[in-house]
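Protein: SRPBCC family protein
Species: Lysobacter yangpyeongensis
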Amino acid sequence: MNIQSPQRAAHAYVQRLVAPPERVFPLLCPVREADWIEGWRPTFVASDSGVGETDCVFATAAEPHDAIWYVTRHEPDAGFIEMLKITPGVTACRFTIGLHAMAQGCDATVTYRHTSLGTPAGDAFVASFTAEHYVAFMRDWEARLNHYLVHGTALQGARD
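Structure follows.
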């Protein structure tokens, strides 16, 4: 048995979105994200409803093996979703989004907590998951989601 102290990186970011939670929440789904994230194409989705739900499982391309995502909580009325993402041989991740209604639109608190699976690839990934990297990732995601909410189309290419 190999028990060790975890190598982790966890970051949270609050996005400011231009629509209310009830309009944003359905877009936080492995199927609907393809509407607003350029190039988002899960390789597999297992869903009773055809969209995100509790116990939905999906896979996305990753190295050295596809990442497996499992939706553990899907609470539209509360504006909350939680998923586990396992990239075999690299990391295990707990991912949450909580939506909070504002006077105009909503705030989305997006949190990733990556834990290395004790491999050089996992340790390197965790080390590279810096606050600076995360803020850039979240700002891009925020711009893409807001563009879709305003225009109804995916933002193409890199954002300005």
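Remarks: The chain has one domain: 8-151.
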